[in-house]
Amino acid sequence: MAMEAGSIVEGKVTRITNFGAFVELEEGKVGLIHISEVADVYVNDVHDFLSEGDKVQVKVVSIEGNGKIALSLKQAKVKPPENDAQSFNKQNRRGDSRKPPRQLSASFEDKLSKFLKDSDERLTDLKRKTDSKRGGRGSRRD
Question: Rg (Cα) of the chain, in Å, rounded?
Answer without folding.
Answer: 29
